[in-house]
Amino acid sequence: MRSSENKIQVNEQLSLPFMGCGTWAWGNTLLWNYDQSQDQKLQQVFNFCVDNGVTLFDTGDSYGTGKLKGRSEQLLGQFTREYQGEEKINICIATKLAAYPWRLTRQSMIAACDASAERLGKPVDLVQMHWPTANYAPWQENALLDGLATLYEQGKVKGVGLSNYGPKRLRKVHQQFAERGVPIVTLQVQYSLLSTETVEKLGLKAVCEELGIQLIAYSPLTLGLLTGKYGNGVFPKGVRGLLFRYLLPGIKPVLDCLREIATDRNKTFSQVALNWCICKGTIPIPGAKNLTQAQENLGALGWRLSESEVTELDQAASLVTRTMVKNPFQTT
């Protein structure tokens, strides 16, 4: 895995930017209040990101609520076709395939990837296992992983990644894939100043460095909680609002530290929190629903926190009494 000035080379076919864009909200009416009138704003987000070198877009075949399932992939396909800038050749669509209970065979994953490619109107660049089944149906997982490896062997994808795997399970899967000559190039996990356990306490970062796997940090702003925009009676609607009311009383040390560094740096809370993820060697993939949010996210690039500032944030994170709810599919 090689780093250039602006890209991280994860294999011969894939180079990734220091930050990507998550598209969970694109089609999600339940948590993110999506409606199709937002599509023009989302296309502005896409174009702005690509114009500025943020060419990694993370999606999933389960993204989209109800009848809108797959909407995120459809939008990314449309936006990619319509984009005409110089960076078009570098666009990387990373799709996560869900381990649905009815997906039981190698062929089911191949068919799922083919369906994603149809929605995108192009081959999937980076295919990822959305979550492991080891915590509840370990017998199901090997066939699905076999499907991922076959996709790479057949040349249908440029790279294979995993999501929500811990260090022990990662080593086992890495060995399985290595025996077939299939490299795992990325691992996506929940990681932010409020979600450090898996990466740091369980030693996942060290294992990824040893195996040459690039870490991708999802929910790097903890669903928006680390933007500093909430509290004092201001909360988002729905499930996020309930979660924020629970978490806010216990995260004051992190918010205070973010405020201090953001003021000194003339940056925003979000930009500092995202830059911390980058300094930790991960590729954060914050979401954006409009151009203003995308512009703020990209303000995390082009500079680096000092070692002392990273240490201050680490210490603040160790003092929080309420951390982000752990993904139940995450393995050790």
Gist?
The chain is α/β, with parallel strands linked by helices.
What does the model show?
- The chain has 13 helices and 11 strands.
- Helix 4 (106-120) packs across helix 5, helix 10 (252-265) crosses helix 11 and helix 10 packs antiparallel against helix 13 (307-319).
- With 332 residues, it is α/β, with parallel strands linked by helices.
- It has a single domain (2-223, 281-303), classed as TIM Barrel (Alpha-Beta Barrel), CATH 3.20.20.
- The strands form 2 sheets. The protein has an 8-stranded parallel beta sheet. Strands 1-2-3 form a 3-stranded antiparallel beta sheet, with no helix packed on it.
- The two termini are 24 Å apart.
- InterPro entries: Aldo-Keto_reductase, NAD(P)_OxRdtase_dom_sf, NADP_OxRdtase_dom.
- GO terms for molecular function: oxidoreductase activity.
- Residues 19-316 form the NADP-dependent oxidoreductase domain.
- Keywords: Oxidoreductase.
- This is Oxidoreductase, aryl-alcohol dehydrogenase like protein.
Please give the radius of gyration in angstroms: 19 Å
CATH architecture: Alpha-Beta Barrel
Strand fraction band? 5-15%
Number of domains: 1
Helicity, as a percent range = 40-55%
Compute the number of helices: 13
SSE pattern: EEEEHHEHEHEHEHEHHEHHHEHH
The CATH first-level class comes to Alpha Beta
**What is the average of the pLDDT values?**
95
Q: How many beta-strand segments?
A: 11
Write the CATH homologous superfamily.
Answer: NADP-dependent oxidoreductase domain
Strand order of the largest sheet: 4-5-6-7-8-9-10-11
The biggest beta sheet, please? 8 strands, parallel
What is the straight-line distance between the termini? 24 Å
Query: Structural class, from secondary structure content?
Result: alpha/beta
What is the fold named in CATH at topology level? TIM Barrel
* Uncertain parts: none
- Principal-axis shape: globular
GO molecular function, one term: oxidoreductase activity
InterPro entries: Aldo-Keto_reductase (IPR050791), NAD(P)_OxRdtase_dom_sf (IPR036812), NADP_OxRdtase_dom (IPR023210)
Keywords: Oxidoreductase
Protein name: Oxidoreductase, aryl-alcohol dehydrogenase like protein
